[in-house]
């Protein structure tokens, strides 16, 4: 049996329209549409062509999907201009990788989920303070390595093999598990803020749809989580310069632009100085890409689970189990940290994992 949802997953992940793909595999668009809605089963020859065009083995389409995100409140941190094709591609990638993660999680005992959604009416500041406590962050401690810290708290953090053009991250609750998906980037400061922003949605807006007000609340949460105002008052000099902000960026991991906004909020700079600083950044070509670089942090959990189950080189076994190609499995694994790539803070592994039988014995 061929599952229509699998056809849609693979096609939208590959950014192919029904019309284009139908022509490539020699069927009508109506036929392909019916196949995706489980009203028609593609003959094997057409399925093989479909598989070759989308990069998934034929077996992938013959296994029922376990994870479907459509219909769930989903929050994207995206730039202007993100369209349905880009958001659908990210969600389909998230479904495919989350499914493989959940299959592995069922075979292991990992950290319990300690991050929960807040009661309605909780302020972003209160939620951020509570979250820092849950993550074991002292009041003046930067939240560097946040993706790793969230995995210690039981959150499923996955990295998608997709560029972050127009999209940075998205989050949702799947069943009773918060899922945070990060897109590929080399800008660690933007990744850190996106991770905190999406965490804000997870704890504040579990059942809510997207809106401008909720985006503002998620940014407020991110600001309080990453740059607590009491700590910023102590760390930030009076009348800070671009050089001062660059030093603060290295310590706290957030962008100079975010720190300038915080400085105005704290009264360290006035509106005129605020405007002047952003003009300086524009003149230096730093409004979109700042010179002071912060390395991104890869999540670890997905790869740690694969290594625990399949051994130190899990690509081929993961591909066989997940019904992926070995190349796709290696691509996904490469977005997740090896033990040596983890940040130095805390532990050598992101989660304490053991096979389920062994842990219960």
| End-to-end CA span | 39 Å
What does the main sheet amount to? 4 strands, mixed
Mean pLDDT across all residues, rounded? 93
Looking across the biggest beta sheet, what order are the strands in? 1-4-5-3
Radius of gyration: 22 Å
How many structural domains does the protein architecture include? Answer: 3
Share of helix, binned: 40-55%
Could you explain how this protein is built, in words?
This protein is α+β, with helices and mostly antiparallel strands and 361 residues long. The protein has three domains: 4-62, 434 Repressor (Amino-terminal Domain), CATH 1.10.260.40; 69-226 and 296-361, no CATH class; 229-283, no CATH class. 50% of the residues lie in helices and 9% in strands. The strands form two sheets. It has a four-stranded mixed β-sheet with strand order 1-4-5-3, with helices on both faces. Helix 2 packs across helix 3. It comes from Nonomuraea guangzhouensis.
Task: Tell me briefly what this model is.
This protein is an alpha+beta fold and 361 residues long. It folds into three domains: 4-62, 434 Repressor (Amino-terminal Domain) (Orthogonal Bundle); 69-226 and 296-361, no CATH class; 229-283, no CATH class.
Key descriptive features of the protein:
361 residues; alpha+beta; 434 Repressor (Amino-terminal Domain); four-stranded mixed sheet; two-stranded antiparallel ribbon; 9% strand; disordered C terminus
